[in-house]
Design brief:
heterodimer, A: 483 residues, alpha/beta, ten-stranded mixed β-sheet, 12 helices, B: 252 residues, Rossmann fold, four-stranded antiparallel β-sheet, 10 helices, binds adenosine-5'-diphosphate, binds magnesium ion
Chain lengths: 483, 252
């Protein structure tokens, strides 16, 4: 047997444990509950923002006030009272911190418990991390090393201070402030998130990742991420998120914008594990997220990979505007819902340039009394000659009280388009279950195994370091779904 | 090790096993032969705990425990292995991962820690070699796209990995060419020792040239109608099953 075989087997069999429902006892400061202009001024002032940024927010707020919450998705939840939320929560600095690099040990401890050590020597080799807790970024690792390559990786608050030209140029380019209700809200009150800029012809020397953690109670999290890959640049970026177990629902409304210029490639992966609520459907995060990328230049590529296991309600459609000729958009998704979770997720691939290609692979797994919907739009505009799309949507049902739904929308304005859509729905059959049990796996272990196999095509797209965690996460989220 | 007493099992109201009696002791190999539809696979499934069957009568003791009280996975972890007549494909799950999960489930059941990666690696290499399984197979999805013969070899490989007390082989020989048959038989023979036992279900005598049984039983219409030593298999090969059927008729 070859050394590579040995390594592969060892990789497959090494593993570790993982849990995140805890709350950290960190002293925090909050914005007063409620939302009006003064809230926005408060947030902006906390971040010491320049006037142009404040004005941008205020304008977004005005637009939001005139918008209505969308009701077209296949999810149900009680009306959110936007006046009962605090829009800013930040760990209180114990004393004035000497430098930005000093982090409260309690916070370090929190991230250690989450398996995200922030000390550079301990961190996953080759992965730089931006750690965001509630409304602020507490630490970004490997900043200097990345700077040597000309890569900017920092919190968006810092970018507003230090790279205003880039922010002014790109913020809101892909998701305008009035794009939709939640995007407008985010634009008004966004707190923190990451900013990435990869200069021309630069391959980012390591994986970048942001870890989002909600800790505070009665707050919303509104992060904003912006990634710009200049001509010929490449970056792979991963976000992870968790939250403590709480009885009340918490709102998370993020916006992520990706810009790929000519010949650039952005690979964006998400492992979303916000608290899903308990078995009876109490508590959990409302995850209303707008993620969109633009393949602006020719031959550019944007690839979204997501593993969605958490949240009580998910509303999320990472999309790609294929503007540049020959550009490529990809969407690989595993969405698991269990108990009372609801997910309405999918993608939009908008073919604008010539010879543009898109590929959609969606794996939906529903258990308990959950509802899991795939909603996808493939649009081919009239000047998009020779556009190609392939979509594969597979649903796996566990038990007979859950639902899987597929809503593919196809709009074609150019006759040369080649669009293929395949969909399957299956149940975990008795034969496969008995086979696994005969080998010693209980139904729960067998289910986790089968689900991992079902999702493999998507999991394989994740950066190696995270694929293992994602697999475990799938198993954990399906606990109690069979028996 | 295995003691089956007057076992009756039915499916959807049809009685398929009609009073099976069988004693298997450690170190023994029992062959069960019989025409198609006589209930051989049903017996294997019932022993392994498939819940499609209703057990209306009888008992099964396995190493001192009431087998029929256990879930299928508990039976497996207690050391009962069934090599399936029709192995199932598990898309996207590598053989390695599957075996790791199964072995660790068994170890956990016996209060042992998960197997150390290097120990596992050593074992999987040894056992794959035992049935001449190309290491590439270990990374491929369980049985997915395997030929019939490869699936059967994979069953024996899994059996070797799990080191059961009792291995039940359901028509493992069917669909195998002579070379594959030898590989599979060598695998089984290498696993034989004085502590374990095998029940080999087949309707061809051919396999029994390689896996030599201590006892041969003929299952017919849900009952063991004749038992003997390995010469019975040869006799069946020569004369077919008709003489047994005839032998039975006057008695009924
Ligand atoms: N799940 C089932 N549902 C209905 N009939 C079954 C089922 N399993 C077995 N049988 C019937 O029981 C009889 C014995 O089958 P089986 O045990 O597969 O025989 P063998 O393995 O000896 O060829 C056959 O008549 C078969 O049709
Ligand atoms: Mg059979």
């Amino acid at each position: 047997m070859s050394g590579r075989d040995n390594d592969k087997i060892l990789d497959e069999v090494t593993s570790s444990e993982y849990k995140y429902g805890f709350t950290s006892n960190i002293e925090q400061e909050f914005a007063p509950v409620g939302l009006d202009e003064s809230t926005i001024r408060f947030i902006s002032a906390k971040k010491n923002e320049p006037e142009w940024m404040l004005n941008w927010r205020l304008e977004a707020f005005k637009k939001w006030q005139q918008m209505k919450e969308p009701e077209w998705s296949n999810v149900k939840y009680p009306k959110i009272d936007y006046q009962s939320i605090s829009y800013y929560a930040a760990p209180k600095p114990k004393e004035k911190l000497g430098s930005l690099d000093e982090v409260d040990p309690e916070l370090l401890d929190t991230f250690n418990k989450l398996g995200i050590p922030l000390e550079e020597q301990k961190i996953l080799a080759g992965v730089a991390v931006d750690a965001v807790i509630d409304s602020v970024s507490v630490k970004t690792t490997y900043k200097e090393k990345l700077a040597e390559a000309g890569v900017i990786f920092c919190s968006i608050s810092e970018a507003v201070q230090n790279h205003p030209d880039l922010i002014k140029k790109y913020l809101g380019m892909v998701v305008p402030t009035n794009d939709n209700f939640f995007a407008a809200l985010n634009s008004a009150v966004f707190s923190d998130g990451s900013f990435v800029y990869i200069p021309k012809n630069t391959r980012c020397p390591m994986e970048l990742s942001t870890y989002f953690r909600i800790n505070a109670q009665n707050t919303g999290q509104f992060e904003r991420t912006l990634i710009v890959a200049d001509e010929g640049a490449y970056v792979s970026y991963l976000e992870g998120c968790t939250a403590p177990m709480r009885d009340e629902n918490q709102l998370h409304a993020a916006v992520v914008e990706l810009v790929a210029l000519g010949d650039a490639e952005i690979k964006y992966s998400t492992v979303q594990n916000w608290y899903p609520g308990d078995k009876e459907g109490k508590g959990g995060i409302y995850n209303f997220v707008t993620k969109r990328g633009i393949c602006k230049g020719p031959n550019s590529k944007i690839s979204w990979t997501q593993v969605e296991t958490g949240s009580a309600v998910t509303w999320k459609y990472p999309s790609v505007l294929l503007t540049g000729d020959n550009s490529i958009g990809e969407f690989y998704s595993v969405a698991v819902t269990n108990n009372h979770q609801q997910a309405d997720t999918g993608t939009k691939m908008i073919h604008i340039g010539k010879n543009t290609k898109s590929r959609i692979v969606s794996k939906g797994i529903s258990a308990g009394v959950s509802q899991n919907s795939y909603r996808g739009l493939v649009r081919v505009m009239n000047r998009a000659e020779n556009a190609k799309n392939f979509s594969q949507c597979d649903s796996l049902l566990i038990g007979d009280k859950c639902g899987a739904h597929t809503f593919p929308y196809i709009e074609i304005d150019n006759k040369t388009a080649n669009v293929e859509h395949e969909a399957t729905t299956s149940k975990i059959g008795e034969d496969i279950m008995f086979y696994c049990q005969q080998r010693g796996l209980d139904p729960e272990e067998a289910t986790a195994m089968i689900v991992n196999g079902f999702s493999r095509e998507v999991l394989d797209k994740l950066p190696m370091e995270f694929a293992v965690e994602a697999k475990k996460l799938l198993a954990i989220s399906l606990e109690g779904s069979v028996g | 090790m295995l003691s089956i007493k007057d076992l009756h099992a039915s499916v959807e109201g049809n009685e398929i096993l009609k009073g099976i009696n069988l004693e298997v002791k450690p170190g023994e190999v029992h062959a069960i032969m019989g025409p198609n539809g006589s209930g051989k696979s049903t017996l294997a499934s019932v022993l392994a705990g498939r819940d499609d069957y209703e057990i209306s009568q009888g008992s099964v003791q396995f190493d001192g425990i009431d087998l029929l009280e256990l879930s299928p996975e508990e039976r497996s972890r207690e050391g009962l292995f069934l090599a399936f007549q029709y192995p199932v494909e598990i898309p996207g799950v590598s053989n390695t991962n599957f075996m790791k999960a199964c072995i660790n489930a068994k170890r956990k059941h016996h209060g042992q820690d998960p197997m150390k990666p290097h120990e596992f690696l050593k074992m999987i290499k040894e056992k794959a070699a035992l049935v001449d399984l190309d290491p590439q197979f270990l990374h491929r999805s369980v049985n997915e796209g395997f030929s019939g013969g490869e699936k059967k070899r994979n069953e024996i490989f899994q059996m070797a990995m799990l080191e059961p007390k009792l291995g039940i082989l359901d028509e493992t020989d069917s669909g195998l060419d002579i070379d594959a048959l030898k590989v599979v038989s060598n695998g089984v023979n290498a696993l034989r020792n004085e502590k374990n036992a095998f029940v080999v279900i087949t309707h061809y005598q051919r396999l029994l040239n390689y896996i030599v049984p201590d006892f041969v039983h003929v299952l017919y219409k849900g009952k063991i109608v004749k038992s003997g030593d390995k010469s019975l298999a040869l006799e069946l090969e020569e004369k077919g099953y008709d003489w047994i059927k005839e032998e039975l008729t006057p008695a009924q």
